[in-house]
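Now for today's protein:

——
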Amino acid sequence: MPVNDAPTLPRALLPAIVAVALVATLLLLGHALRPALNRPLQALRVDGQFVHLRPRQIAEAAAVAPGARLFDVDLDTVRGRVEALPWVAHARVSRVWPGRIALRVWERKPYALWGDKGLVDDEGHAFTPAAAELPQDLPRLAGPEGREAEVMQDYQQLAQALAGSAFAANGLQLDARGAWTLSTVAGIELRLGNEDPRGKLVLLQGAVLRTIGDKLDQVAYVDLRYSNGFSVGWKNTAGPCPAKDLVNARFASETRGGAPGSARPDCGRKDASQAMNAPARPNGTAGATAAEGSKHE
């Protein structure tokens, strides 16, 4: 009986060989059919919920060439063009056979004003739309580039903690030196220092409010940068107790036991003793009478 010495393939390789052959066949078939499948574009569809964007504006930004064919459009390039629009947070681009490009766009939701010319969205990303598109009824935030999310998150926590109080917040600034300044709806500036601004909440809602709660309409700023107290700067008005009158009031009441002479009648001994220990006027307090702002411990 003749012996067949021809080599044979292991049975285990047969499925792999069949799969490779099938893939190759499909690739060849796809290449052959591509001209028939790659039809000219018939439409560009834009979907999304828009307040500041318009579908036509998005379509113009996509800049798909007239007469382009479906499979010749670079989807990544189109997405990049659309996401370059200031109000676009995210975009998704897909092909829909036989001849349509579908664009799904998510518009940014502004959370606060950022600096002088921009906005920060609810994801903590800064962007700069046209000046006419800046809403003016938003909180005002500011800080170094790249720290937008941090400033926004700290503001959210401070605003929540102070909501409904005399120090309800409407803005937060982080300067280049790392110092925090919170602004309030009432127009008071709260200087919180370089540490975690939330660490000043107990002092602010406790001793500060008890001390100046009945004079808040006359307060320009509260300086909370002290380790053991705070100081107050008054607006450019008569103020609750000017320093000179406070000293006169204390002297008159202690030496004569009567009216404080030229001192204002509303300046009492308690305020006078606080003013006598007031720190030197801080730098940069134009617009407020810091000498009248006494340190409280």
